[in-house]
């Protein structure tokens, strides 16, 4: 590269660098962005977003008689006006129809088994009673014609006759005992079968009640609003639910409240009874005041695809505007953590921190002087100065 070409390339760069150094060296306090410190109101606020919901509502859940998981097969349109007794949710009935068919088959089998058992036992009992009757006749005959007279009968005849009487008596007692045991056995077996039948009948009744309760009806007139689960999903067709699961609600539209979400990193100072102003997205000119009445103790995610965590807060409202305030209406809110009427405050970027002390650059003529100050409350944008500054002084930003 020739010397001429070298200068043609780098001369403009050297000129720019020289101008920059000259400007930096010659700059004064007049070129520094600054602000005049004076008394003014100071607020610590927390931004929030959320939606409106009814302060009071009637929950719609699966029937308490249902003990099994259920699958939703049909839903009435959300935000539709429903009347008392109108079906709003219908569950899939296929499972219970199959269960009822299976138990009805089991009931028919057990009934047949009971009849067969009763018939067989009745036959055995009749056979034993028939044998017992014959034995009683034999006993009566043997007793009547018992050979006891030694003058008429030989000793052998008398002994044989006595043995016959004893044998018939023993046989009679044996048959009586066998008959009693058969009756006991028959009762036990029949009771066992009846117990099994009772269990099947109870299952059938439960399945039939569950089948009858698969259609959930509106308890009273109102607007139907579906609930969200812990993942933020609203009730939908195909969802698996259980007894006690909150499917939907019919809200009382005369009294509304706000359900707000506050980013975990911005929730400093959050507590109950703090004042709140609510702005309705669909009617931004309508502002409603309220107070925090409850908040979560643990921040949670509201979107499974986002790692951000939020605190959930409920806010009671001073009034309800029926024309614009409906369940699910999106809102933005400002929560007032601290409000001071007359203090000195500076933007946060005007303060520097070193070894536990706070400093600001105060403009003094053409120079700036670093001055230590005491700080108080701090918001997301400003910090209160409790000592070290006077009204009218200029602070470099």
What does this structure look like?
It is a single chain. Among the domains are: 57-88 and 217-251, no CATH class; 95-212. The strands form five sheets. It has a six-stranded antiparallel barrel. A four-stranded antiparallel β-sheet has the order 7-6-4-10, with no helix packed on it. Strands 3-11-9 form a three-stranded antiparallel β-sheet, with no helix packed on it. Helix 2 (94-144) runs antiparallel to helix 3. Helix content is 34%, strand content 35%. With 397 residues, it is an alpha+beta fold. The longest helix has 58 residues, at 155-212. A hairpin with a 2-residue loop joins strand 19 (357-364) and strand 20 (367-378).
Summarize the amount of helix as a percent range: 25-40%
Number of strands: 22
Report the portion of residues in β strands. Answer: 25-35%
Largest beta-sheet characterization: 6 strands, antiparallel, barrel
In spatial order, strands of the major sheet run 2-12-16-14-13-17
Overall form: elongated
Low-confidence stretches: 1-29
How many distinct helices? 3
Give, in order, the helices and strands.
Answer: HEEEEEEHHEEEEEEEEEEEEEEEE
Integer average pLDDT: 82
Gap between N and C termini: 48 Å
Calculate Rg over CA atoms: 47 Å
Class based on secondary structure composition and strand pairing: alpha+beta
């Amino acid at each position: 590269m020739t010397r001429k070409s070298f200068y043609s390339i780098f001369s403009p760069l050297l000129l720019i660098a020289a101008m920059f150094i000259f400007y930096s060296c010659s700059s004064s306090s007049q070129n520094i962005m600054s602000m005049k410190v004076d008394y003014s109101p100071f607020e610590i606020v927390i931004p929030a977003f959320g939606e409106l919901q009814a302060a009071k509502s009637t929950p719609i859940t699966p029937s308490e008689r249902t003990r099994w998981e259920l699958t939703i097969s049909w839903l009435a349109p959300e935000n539709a006006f429903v009347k008392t007794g109108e079906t709003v949710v219908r569950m899939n009935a296929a499972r219970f129809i199959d269960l009822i068919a299976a138990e009805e088959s089991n009931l028919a089998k057990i009934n047949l088994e009971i009849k067969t058992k009763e018939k067989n036992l009745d036959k055995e009992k009749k056979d034993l009673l028939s044998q017992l009757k014959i034995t009683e006749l034999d006993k009566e005959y043997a007793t009547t014609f018992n050979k006891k007279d030694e003058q008429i009968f030989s000793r052998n005849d008398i002994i044989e006759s006595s043995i016959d009487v004893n044998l018939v008596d023993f046989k009679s007692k044996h048959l009586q005992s066998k008959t009693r045991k058969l009756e006991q056995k028959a009762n036990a077996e029949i009771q066992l079968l009846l117990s099994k039948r009772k269990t099947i009948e109870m299952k059938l009744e439960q399945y039939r009640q569950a089948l009858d309760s698969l259609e959930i009806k509106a308890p009273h007139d109102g607007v139907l609003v579906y609930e969200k689960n812990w993942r933020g999903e609203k009730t939908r067709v195909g969802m698996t639910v259980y007894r006690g699961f909150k499917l939907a609600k019919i809200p009382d539209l005369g009294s509304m409240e706000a359900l707000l979400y506050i980013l975990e990193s911005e929730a400093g100072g959050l507590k109950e009874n703090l004042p709140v102003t609510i702005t309705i997205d669909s009617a931004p000119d309508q502002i409603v005041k309220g107070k925090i009445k409850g908040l979560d103790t643990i921040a949670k995610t509201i979107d499974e695809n986002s790692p951000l965590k939020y605190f959930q807060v409920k806010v009671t409202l001073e009034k309800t505007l029926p024309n614009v305030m409906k369940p699910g209406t999106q809102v933005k809110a400002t929560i007032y953590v601290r409000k001071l009427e007359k203090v000195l405050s500076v933007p946060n970027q005007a303060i520097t921190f070193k070894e536990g002390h706070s400093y600001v650059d105060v403009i003094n003529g053409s120079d700036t002087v670093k001055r230590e100050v005491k700080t108080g409350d701090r918001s997301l944008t400003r910090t209160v100065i409790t000592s070290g500054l006077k009204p009218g002084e200029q602070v470099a930003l």
